[in-house]
Amino acid sequence: MDNISSAIQTLSESANTLFILIGAIMVLAMHAGFAFLEVGTVRHRNQVNALAKIMSDFGFSAIAYFFIGYWVAYDVTFFSSASVLSEGSGYELVKFFFLMTFAAAIPAIISGGVAERAKFAPMLVAAAAIVAFVYPFFEGLIWNSNYGFQDWLNNTFGAPFHDFAGSVVVHAVGGWIALAAILILGVRNGRYRGGRLVAFAPSNIPFLALGAWILTVGWFGFNVMSAQTMDGISGLVAVNTLMAMVGGIITSLIAGKNDPGFLHNGPLAGLVAVCAGSDLMHPIGALITGGIAGVLFVWLFTLIQNRFKIDDVLGVWPLHGVCGVWGGIAAGIFGTEALGGLGGVSLMSQIIGTIAGVVVAFVGGWIVYTAVDKVSGIRLSDEDEYKGADLAIHKIGATSED
């Protein structure tokens, strides 16, 4: 019997390790989606820089999270021997890998907002600082119940803040940090003339669409594998993810008047919004959540570019920041039993937890980017911006006619 029990335990540990490893690989693949979405959206002379930023940010984020961020969030370090670290089929190591791909999404989100006018090395330093300190502070607050914040919400409002896969913890935090960086950087040269918006057309719609599709497919690993163990897997999460994506597609197509940029970001808006409550909502609630997110993205992206003159190149603040906020609140609405959800959520806890994420992200981002800007400057010179980041920083263009 002991041998059978041991074999079953080993099989269970191996299955859980494989499960979360597949999730980690799927979210890792999403970074290619971030890259191609940005490559297709920026102008041709900034395509190489878009690719280089996503790859470099991932490397620096991994180091920052391995040595500092994971410790800040979960009080876990990796200074034990390999024999200790590999216990339980190495599940804890692969769990780190999975959560690190989430952490690395923060600089990938920011990258799209600050494109075409940011220096390279200073922004890498800022990204590492964000992933080492700002993001894991809020991650640990919510997903590890650090500092008693979740206990206070539970005792006061009857439920802790619920964010199953990161509408707020990942997306809203990334979007609001990006807004701080965008405001500090300022608008691209030539973007506004005589107070009126000058259109900078995307360089490559097929690349933009490819990036959106890669992100969309990978998102099912992002959400479903957030269960982190086989016994927690739920088909409800998968179908809610699907329905929110569909809702975002349809409403962004209509609200965006067939614009391909809006259309391909619409499903992403829906997916951002459903992360928090994907394990609780009824599929119809997920469809509504995603549909509202699609409209929010189109309306806000147009508003901030035209009226407020906030030069957010990929619209990461509306897409991740605002749709992430909506997702945190939507979990407290459509997750209730009264609206067909599984219950166990409090709307007040969702509102307060979401506000906390916004404050931590924006204030933390403002501190980091202001500090880096004071030390080395984070904006390209006018000459380098005119030449384009590809030639100014990487000394090569995206394509050659030779």
UniProtKB/TrEMBL annotation:
It is a multi-pass membrane protein. Keywords: Ammonia transport, Membrane, Transmembrane, Transmembrane helix, Transport. Residues 19-395 form the Ammonium transporter AmtB-like domain. The keyword Magnesium does not apply. It comes from the Bacteria. The chain crosses the membrane at residues 18-39, 51-73, 93-111, 123-144, 164-185, 197-221, 233-255, 262-280, 286-304, 316-335, 347-369. The keyword Phosphoprotein does not apply. InterPro entries: Ammonium/urea_transptr, Ammonium_transpt_CS, NH4_transpt_AmtB-like_dom. It is found in: Membrane. Belongs to the ammonia transporter channel (TC 1.A.11.2) family. This is Ammonium transporter.
